[in-house]
Design a protein that fits this description.
By secondary structure, the protein is α+β, with helices and mostly antiparallel strands. Among the domains are: about 10-195, no CATH class; about 200-305, no CATH class; about 450-565 and about 605-610, hypothetical protein PF0899 domain (hypothetical protein PF0899 fold), CATH 3.30.2320.10. The chain is about 25% helix and about 25% strand. It contains 12 helices and 23 strands. The strands form 4 sheets. Strands 1, 2, 3, 4, 5, 6, 7, 8, 9 and 10 form a 10-stranded mixed β-sheet that branches. Strands 15, 16, 17, 18, 19 and 23 form a 6-stranded mixed β-sheet that branches. Strands 11, 14, 20, 21 and 22 form a 5-stranded mixed β-sheet that branches. Helix 7 packs across helix 9. The longest helix is centred in the middle third of the chain and has 25 residues, at about 200-225. It starts with 7 loop residues before the first strand and ends with a strand. The model is unreliable at about 120-140, about 155-180, about 225-245 and about 280-295 (pLDDT under 50).
Length: about 625
Amino acid sequence: MPKADYDFSGWATKNDLRCSDGRIIRHNAFKVNDGQQVPLVFNHVHGDPSKVLGHAILENRDEGVYAYGYFNNTRAGQDAKEAVKHGDINALSIWANNLQQAGSEVLHGVIREVSLVLAGANPGAFIESVVAHNLPMEDGDDEGIFYTNEFIISHADSEVKANNDKKEEKKEEPKVADTKDTKQSGSDEPTVGEVYETLNDNQKLMVDILIDEAVKQALENNKDKGDDDVKHNIFNSYEEEEYDGNVLSHADMDNILSAAKRGNSLRDTYNEYCAVNDIQHGDEHGIVYPTGTSTYGINDMDMLFPDLKNVTNTPTWISRRMEWVDVILKGVHRTPFSRIKSLFADITQDEARAKGYIKGKQKVTEVFSTLKRTTTPTTIYKLQKVDRDDVIDITDFDVIAWIKSEMRVMLDEEIARAILVGDGRQSTDNDYINRDNIRPIVSDADLFNVKVGIKTTIPTDVSNQTAIDAFAKSFVNSVIFNYRKYKGSGNPTAFMQESVLSCLLLAEDGMGRKLYPTMETLKTALRVKDIVTVEVMEGVNITYKVNTEDVTGEVMCILVNLNDYNVGADKGGAISMFDDFDINFNKNEYLIETRISGALVRPYSAMTIVAIGE
């Protein structure tokens, strides 16, 4: 139970409030906080101990969570106490985490602090959530700030108690006042809340901004003057006698907002309206000058607008297109062992054919050759270090989860790249992925990968329709003609450069009609089950032998059924993430690695189309 000498009390949150994102706080959602003490701060600034104003004792009730506040003896605590007693601050808010939900209903959470907030800036109730999208959300991963537009009641000053007793003679205990419904007895005048609800959304936004800025300016003025008490109207920095010029009225603001909706910026509309109607402007301190002493225009008008907000919860990665990576990693055949041995017997030679017998002739023994290839594993890894100070200071999102997601994405891309075209590094590079351990399909031996050279180059001028048509015809005809050399299992997938696919789709016949108007028609023509563009194939060249001569060309397309490519990993060699902490340098260290092997295991199971120039 709270002590009797509390400074104020009020509702920290109420049950069954529908928030702006559709969430609803349910009965006993914060029951775990019943009787607990939590810090009391202003506007949820809970990252600095010097900003703590005191503490609050929470009481779980059927209607919600009720708070009893106690201010400390710091300067900030006593200033807040005066503001509450004076009625300048009259609303509470909570910050909670470990939220558990069922659909849109908040069923459980833990209140970590209670804040004094400005009621006028947050009409009704709403919640702002902070979630990491880069990982699946689990129970306890969510947190939020809940604003409840309910007045708090100060009990610190005897005079205020007496005034409250006169206004609420029939009430036995302090009740929560509602700005929308409460009126003085016998009065027909509308309340502030009722007037506020008559405004449209734009007008409400402007009122919220002006109130917030006025409060900030009043507090700053008091600080500059060394005055500890809030004694004056926060909207008046100077006496009214100083304002001799025209001022901006509610009707003026309505006209400005209406004009701004027609396409002009709010700043330009505001300046133009004031110029036409001889309305005075303020300086950077918000001071309105008399007529004739100010030029038109507002200094630092941007301060009136809401703070900038990120459109995503985490920074967006700038990366290559990654769709092909999943196709590679999900398509390959996997084995629980990494040391692969492939044995083949070549029965395509004439010596292996069955023979006819002529009476009296000697029978000839069959002859065929056997082949063997072995592939052993190698390690692929990614290491990252982060200063612990930075991890603590970054509070907008989970930076560790963000970094780990980047490490996994880049590791997957590197594995897929090594499988399809190799890592592109020189063999002398310390980071080189050995091609004898993960054998790239594009440069594998002729027994496994058939190379088809076309005397052409990839067109780069989209306006040269003749070159595009000739290229497309040569490419498709070569694939169809050499398809007989492909002996992989089932129909292959075509991995190709984006520029090659673009030329094929742009090709026309003699009548100006598209040869391949859709991807499906192109797949049918190439006899493949799918076409996948691969960004890392751009600029990849290979050298292979034709008879006894070396031929070099640019890789345009690889046809392969990935089920014929085996990726092996022993127990413990699968992708694993390791965490460590360097005490000496105060760093968090993260390592992700795998130890695998990879190779085609079926002869003639891939075909590479190469442009060798004209």
